[in-house]
Automatic annotation (TrEMBL):
Annotated PANTHER family: DUF676 DOMAIN-CONTAINING PROTEIN, LIPASE ROG1-RELATED-RELATED
Name of protein: DUF676 domain-containing protein
Alphabetized Gene3D superfamilies for the sequence: alpha/beta hydrolase (3.40.50.1820)
Domain DUF676 intervals: 1-191
Amino acid sequence: HLIVCVHGLDGNSGDLRLFRCYLEMALPSTRLDFLMSEVNQADTFVTFEEMTEKLVQEIRHYIEAYSIFPSKLSFIGHSLGNIIIRSALTHPDMRLFAGKFHTLLSLSGPHLGMLYPTSPLVSTGLWLMQKWKKSDALQQLSLHDHTDLRQTFLYKLSKSSGLEYFKNILLVSSTQDHYVPYHSARMEMCRAAAKDSSEFGTIYREMVTNLMAPLKSKTGSTLVRYSVYHGLPSSANSFIGRAAHIAMLDSELFIEKMLLVSAMDYFR
């Protein structure tokens, strides 16, 4: 069982190490192999297409170099890493693994982009970062990479196949996390989008339908939404939502409880 761990924006290959440790402890009799992706850690501000190509080649090289023939292939992604994972599923080189996809564990993944943010402060900060870093990825997450919204990367990705090949999809989100909108991490409608009569509202609603329709029509698959509330001290990081976003990676209490009480069963 090969588990590929993909970090988020400005992250590194060690970000998801605690998930590896706790899964290995929780499932000692299960043969688990981990690929801690590092190919994009030097630059996560380029386009998703570039990061996708690098991840797919990293997976292929790992399997060939170590002569691994996985019977199951699972993914754990944090934040932006989940979009790279979903994009990789559509890559021609990944088609031969389609029948082996087992579990996707998504931690604060911006599956519906950064629309309808819960914190004006954070959305302003992301806008400034996008301008300062000239980040193509942040532009794509904001659906500003094309004048026709149906030609944007994220909208086209919502219409692509991939998610329905998994037996289990686990979506983890937190209302305390203002970096990634709660509804986006859960792949669900939000009140602001339901009321929005603009083109962005229409596109958002269509993306929700595009993502959910294949999952609803497939039998034998499991979709679980986890809502997490972290016990965080009052601080500037907590106020802007960064602490909860990072707690998905470094809170041993959260990771231990989530895996040992529930999620580990989806990796057997």
